[in-house]
Amino acid sequence: MSKEQEEFWFKPKRHGYGAVPTNWKGVLATSAFAILLPLVSVPWLLSLSQETRLPGFIVWALAMLYAVWNFTKFAKRKTDGEWLWRHNGKPYRDMLDEKAEE
Description:
- With about 100 residues, this protein is mostly helical.
- Helices cover about 55% and strands about 10% of the residues.
- It has one domain.
- The longest helix has 25 residues, at about 55-75.
């Protein structure tokens, strides 16, 4: 698929930072990610013994950070627009520029 025909799964949020799903693919990706993390995490954490608790927890925390980081990169790539801090759909930096001009 060419860049002009790329389908976006997310759109920038109107308030705050990030994006929200705009079609079934974005909803499915977000839901699968949100369901998969606890399905992997709970058995992993429950399987740790007293001797392996600290190293196991460190491995789990690093794996979760890596998963969230990769999903965020994926969502940014599939977002129709830039991730910025916004209020009512307007970037904060534009609001600050207007205030400085006054």
